[in-house]
Amino acid sequence: MLFRSYERGDLDSARGYMNQLMRAVQPNAEALWLAIRIERRLGDAAAAASYAQRLRKNFPDSREARALSAGQFE
Asked: Which long-range contacts link 31-38 to residues 24+ away (Cβ below 8 Å)?
């Protein structure tokens, strides 16, 4: 549901699903990357930066962290 909401452009729903996921489990690099992309598209720079910091700290060698560093958001 989360990724489908994002793909459909239903960003408010995607954000809601992401918030539920973040409360339930420790997110992996893929989830943090999606959270960054959702927040960027919603225009919440502070939330995107917070997720980006977590991605860089917890998964510095991940494909997602490399994409973040390269500015390849889509």
From this structure: 32/58, 32/59, 32/64, 33/64, 33/67, 33/68, 34/2, 34/3, 34/6, 36/68, 36/73, 37/6, 37/73, 37/74, 38/6, 38/11, 38/14
Name the 3-class secondary structure at 44: coil
With tokens 């339930």, the residue in question is 24
**Token pair of 72, please?**
């390849």
Place of tokens 């893929």: 30
Residue 55: burial class (beta carbons within 10 Å; 0-12, 13-18, 19+): buried
> Tell me: the pLDDT tens digits for 15-58?
999 999 999 999 999 999 999 999 999 999 999 999 999 999 99
pTM, 2 dp: 0.90
